[in-house]
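Quick start: what a row looks like.
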Amino acid sequence: MNRLILLFALGLCFLVSFSQNSGDTIIVPDRPGMSTPPFLIPARTLEIESGYSFERTIDPKQISVLYNTSLFRYGLNPNCEIRLQVNYSGFKDSLNYFEGFDPLTIGSKLLIFEGQGAIPRTSFLFNLTLPGFGYKEFRPANPVPSAYLLMQNDFSDDLNLCYNLGMEWADKSSEVSYFAAVCLGYNISDKLSCFAESYSYFEKSSDAACFADAGLLYLLNNNLQIDISGNIDLIKPSNYYMLSFGAEAVQKCVSK
């Protein structure tokens, strides 16, 4: 617990320092929910999203901890951003305990349509998890791709609906799992917002896994935000939960 508090305090201090003097650049984070909004980082802007999560399954008895997950997003132009994700995590079950870096994940988000009326703002997200880096128990043997279609409708300045459809490939199997998420977001005030969402994973060889989560986000300024959220299993609520908190900061890299 002391290590967790220290890591979070150091990370928050770094993000506060990083977010200074960013002008009017407004943060557009992907975390903390499982769904991903279609908004891109502005051109020549770097955003860092960092957090911690604790995940527990009762049967089978498993604990997964993300001591730090950091997503770096850089806007190449108004229609494209590139991404790098670095995680340090731990996993424990009745027989084993592993702790170390996860493999690196690179990716890109591309704007397809700005959105107009009932037609949603739409983007495409592609990720690739790379072999050759990270703790041996976490490393894939081959590159592992995933792809998502990201959409959002804004009902007003304060209320929106975000929804995703995706495909995720496994490391040592040709089977594809399908991902679907629906998230309702609401701005309570200029600084405080909330969300509630449902997300599911589907595979041909097993039953669907269905979850729900909800959370709060607080904007400290235009360039720095903190968040907290919690997840449960919709099919067996008493068997699984996850808690998460984090922060996001944005910095304009090159002035016009």
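That is the whole record. The chain has a mean pLDDT of 89. The CA atoms of residues 60 and 146 lie 27 Å apart.
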